[in-house]
Amino acid sequence: MTGTGQRGTLQRMDNVAVVVDDLDAAKAFFTELGMELEGEATLEGSVVDRLIGLDAVLTDIAMMRTPDGSGRIELTKYHRPASPSGDQLVPVYALGAHRVMFAVTDIQDVVGRLEPHGAELLGDIVSYENSHRLAYLRGPGGIVLALAEQLT
What we know:
Elements: E1 16-19, H1 23-33, E2 36-44, H2 46-52, E3 58-65, E4 72-80, E5 99-103, H3 107-114, E6 120-121, E7 126-128, E8 132-138, E9 144-150
Parallel strand pairs: 1-4, 5-9
Antiparallel strand pairs: 2-3, 3-4, 6-8, 7-8, 8-9
């Protein structure tokens, strides 16, 4: 509580961060999806180290925003320390956050445009209760997206 007895309140969700191994490929992927590059920065120094609890951090970030400006994804490439390698293909049913959902028009077209950028369908494009067409796909660096097309 603050000195006035009021509690802090949630104002909004600013962004979701996604760690990537190829920042240029991730930017191209999300640009093809329809997001816009809002800005880029290189981050390092003691404030960054203290914030995330690592030493000698050097990272590049790119902030991507949805066309309406209401949603953002922060793409993060770590140069120091190097991101762990190994199997990054976490199953969609594993505990923790694993996907971001986007509303789209013409889901088939969107999937087709993302495939040259490394997107692979995890299953099929399905219809759900005559209200939506849905698809899960994996993009560069193992990023999992869900797409939803509202049916009329």
